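Regression test attached.
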Amino acid sequence: MEPHRHNEKCREVFALLSQYLDVELPAEVCQQIETHIAGCGPCVEFTESLRKTVELCRQYSPAGPPAPIGEAARMRLLDAYKTMLEARQA
Amino acid sequence: MEIRSREQEAELAKQLMAGRPDAFDRFVDYFGSKIFHYSRMMCGHREDAEEVAQETLLKVFESAERLREPGNVKSWIFSIARNECLMKRRKSVFAPARELSLDEFLPVRSGDGEQVRLEIADWSALPDALALQSEMRAQLERSIQQLPETYKSVLLLRDVEGLSTEETAAILDVTGETVRTRLHRARLAVRKDLDEYLRAAGGKREDHGTASAQ
């Protein structure tokens, strides 16, 4: 295998990797990517690291106080909510 | 009941519109918290984020008659929140937006031919469920935080909030193609940042199991 050509294919895969992981690519393009990855150790490794990154982002829930809405603000919101409900019932 | 899915969010919106007794508090707590965290990451200021959460919810209640489809509640709320964030922006309007290019995230390769290796951390040692590893969580937050604004908003909406490409495009007023491009670069930037963190952590602690194998 010529290193240069191999590199080029890796770059193509690299550019499409998020869409591949999100299953947003046409089936034939997915197939081409899978065929390349199956025979390319570096791409296997890189794809796995990106897949885990996406997984971490999806699991990420920010730390910190869950209820930033204070009492005064909540009353103001409740007034707006009641007005909205009344308007709907009218 | 803890809300975990888009269906449950839509159900909460339905209950709110129907005037169910506890729906108001649950709605305010759930979406108030989501908007607050999104805005804190986008604005960088806690006070701004609190105001954005309040103003967004107020606009939601004032114009709730526009919510015809409860399934769209989340993208509708984030559209309002995004506009509120823009109005809070303290940065100079003349500050140039930083663009991320694909090339800056290409991993460094060593060796040649069949022996090519990547100079990256050993991610296989990293479990998928990292919820409880607070150090890693904090690092992830820092990595997301330092993304340029246009990339950060896409990653937060697509990956953290689970909105679709189309919903994210509508919220940010860009094309789906732009969302895909920015999402990929944002993920690559976060990946690179986490990789550096893992390599540094592995270098310091051999028992961590995440040292670069190269």
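Expected vs. actual: identical. Chain B touches chain A through 61 residues (CB under 8 Å).
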